[in-house]
Amino acid sequence: MVKNNVSSAENLCENIRISKNGTLLFAGREAVEIIEKYGSPVFVFDEERVRENCRRYKTALREHFGADALPLYASKAASFKRIYEIIAEEGFGTDVVSSGEIYTAKLAGFPLERAYFHSNNKTDADIAYAIEEGVGCFVVDNVEELEVINAAALEKGKKQRVLLRLTPGIDPHTYAAVATGNVDSKFGSAIETGQAMKITGEALAMTGVELAGFHCHVGSQVFDADVFLKAADIMLRFIRDVKDEYGFECRELDLGGGFGVRYTDADPTLDVSEVIGQISERVKALSEKLGITLPKMRFEPGRSIVADACMTLYTVGTVKKIPGYKNYVSVDGGMTDNPRFALYGSKYTVALAKRMNDECDFKCSVVGRCCESGDILAEGVMLPSGIKRGDILAVFTTGAYNYSMSSNYNRVGRLPVVMIDKGGNDYVAVRRESLEDIARNDV
Ligand SMILES: *Cc1c(COP(=O)(O)O)cnc(C)c1O
Question: Which pTM was predicted?
């Protein structure tokens, strides 16, 4: 069956359009102009889309939970200075998971009191650095870590505010590699096993930490509001149990991120306001029923803030036809700028930037330039026949977990990030890595 990828592309997000001449417009600009100006391959970010995505959460939280709810951008999705500046301007807090992310946020002037420090294994150096820099809240994974944070804070004469990361025991019906809320997860302390209650007691007894509340994050690319509702139920009941056990009133409840985005037109659209509204109804009703004070709510969207605000532009190289088997279209990037197919078998929508209206009758796999058979960007997709060396190929929805998962495998330099602002002006947010950059640490 001949499928026109192009109509799929235009359906993905409002920032993807097709000109009268059949060329790709992104954030109102000719895609081809950007790659001609900045070289290939390149990440192109739509700044206004990042802001719109932020505002969707801001507005929904204010409406449904009031002014003291705070959205946190899970910055592992895309971490560079400019992103921290934008989300700071949009009134977000942020999740950080390493000294590197804390440092980058600090360089951007991000107010670190609004930063939440995650990770299932914070090193001693990370912990010391984060306390030193005044990171507002630690999300503590386990008892051993809690002890180290307590000791480090006492040594510095500080009292560190913390949330405890709990595993509510939910399978979010998503890929195993991105599911984190089940009991046997490497993240957090399980409610079911009693470890969650135990770590709460320990935190309350410590003088170097101030327990603010609890956190859970059940997985990623979740479209089903039920997953969040179930998590909220379990967390609120735990909060009631904690109140009964220790007389502690939870002040902050963080239900994590994981809101789904559209990679292909087979993916549904998630209505953020509706989902937050449903969660709010549940949380308010159940809090009242259980006799607990409504905690301040936190959510941690990562992917859904940046994914559809970016596309990657590549130049086509080898087009290989293996008669009776398969066709390959190779591009000048690959798993070094987007390892998500290799990691999760992720799907993407692709198109040729100058042939957006052409019929897509050539079935092929778009592959990268690395020495790995798994170096695939999109498998079994349809592109216009006659695709050839020099064509510009766009991969959409690449804002999340692409730049931030980039590597120098095969000593390929990382791509630049070019931003397009509201006025349609382009500017560089991250420079392309040069050959000198690649060898800069070699002694
Ligand atoms: C990865 C992660 C997020 C963000 O998940 P998305 O799917 O990108 O929204 C939020 N919270 C925690 C703890 C995470 O590990």
Answer: 0.96
CB 418 within 8 A of CB 45: yes
Tens-digit pLDDT profile for residues 154-193: 999 999 999 999 999 887 665 455 556 666 777 889 999 9
CB 403 within 8 A of CB 340: no
Q: Ligand 1 centre from 74 Cα, in Å?
A: 6
What is the C-alpha to C-alpha distance for residues 342 and 346, in angstroms, rounded to an integer?
8
For the chain, domains (ranges, CATH) are 6-46+307-438 (2.40.37.10), 118-301 (3.20.20.10)
301 lines ligand 1 (CB under 6 A): yes
Q: What angle do CA 406, 410, 411 make, to 5 degrees?
A: 75
Mutation choice for ligand 1 from 73, 95, 259, 340, CB with most ligand atoms inside 8 A = 95
Cis-peptide into 71, omega within 30 deg: no
Scan for tokens 């239900």, then name that residue: 255
Convert the pLDDT of each residue in 317-350 to its tens digit. 999 999 999 999 999 999 999 999 999 999 999 9
Exposure letters 69-81 (e unless 16+ CB within 10 A, then b): bbbbbbbbbbbbb
Query: In angstroms, rounded to a whole number, what is the distance separating the alpha carbons of residues 159 and 149?
Result: 10
